[in-house]
Amino acid sequence: MIVTGELPAGSQWSESVLGERIGIGRTPTRDALQKLAFQRLVHIAPRQGIFISEIDYQGQLHIIQCRREIERLIIPQATLCATEQERAEMSKLIAEFENLKARKDMRKYMRVHFDLTRVLGQASRNSYAAEFYAMLQTLARRFLYFHQDRYPSLAKICDMHIDQLDAIISGSSEAALVAGAARNDYAEERARNILMDLIATSAVTVSINNRKN
């Protein structure tokens, strides 16, 4: 709900209202919020409530930078350590990405991407790295969802995921890293373009306001 904007950035909530909205009790709601706070998706203010975090546009480039580095650990390990069952799950994800190439469905992409992050983290056999990787991926998904109009088709990004998964399944760490680098390059380019557009728009707004004053 945070990633898709159903809970708007900057909005204020209480534990009880959120728990009622998603249909779970107070304790699991509080546990979930603590995890979301760690992931920087909410800010918990004592005696004030829960605030949904704004999107950190400058931080998005740092997220991609960190993701590059942690994938250099996770991807080779996943390539080496993935079980047959995990490789079979990766094959199913490839089929899901192929479907998304033909029909853009951003909510479906979010779910498939979540499963991708989970299986790669699990296959890496490093729970510490997997937890940090999941946090980075959640923030990246949110940024992508809020700017999905920039992606008339998901074909290119899905192809890059497919290339990486194919390499992992076949046991080629080098090819998997190359595919991951290409995907991060693509994400960084898009993020920089969005930031430049925002800066340009902000400059125009300031100029107009100055003229009015």
Automatic annotation (TrEMBL):
<dbReference type="GO" id="GO:0003677">
    <property type="term" value="F:DNA binding"/>
</dbReference>
<dbReference type="InterPro" id="IPR036390">
    <property type="entry name" value="WH_DNA-bd_sf"/>
</dbReference>
<dbReference type="Pfam" id="PF07729">
    <property type="entry name" value="FCD"/>
</dbReference>
<keyword id="KW-0805">Transcription regulation</keyword>
<dbReference type="InterPro" id="IPR008920">
    <property type="entry name" value="TF_FadR/GntR_C"/>
</dbReference>
<keyword id="KW-0804">Transcription</keyword>
<dbReference type="GO" id="GO:0003700">
    <property type="term" value="F:DNA-binding transcription factor activity"/>
</dbReference>
<keyword id="KW-0238">DNA-binding</keyword>
<dbReference type="Pfam" id="PF00392">
    <property type="entry name" value="GntR"/>
</dbReference>
<dbReference type="InterPro" id="IPR036388">
    <property type="entry name" value="WH-like_DNA-bd_sf"/>
</dbReference>
<protein>
    <submittedName>
        <fullName>GntR family transcriptional regulator</fullName>
    </submittedName>
</protein>
<dbReference type="InterPro" id="IPR011711">
    <property type="entry name" value="GntR_C"/>
</dbReference>
<dbReference type="InterPro" id="IPR000524">
    <property type="entry name" value="Tscrpt_reg_HTH_GntR"/>
</dbReference>
<feature type="domain" description="HTH gntR-type">
    <location>
        <begin position="1"/>
        <end position="55"/>
    </location>
</feature>
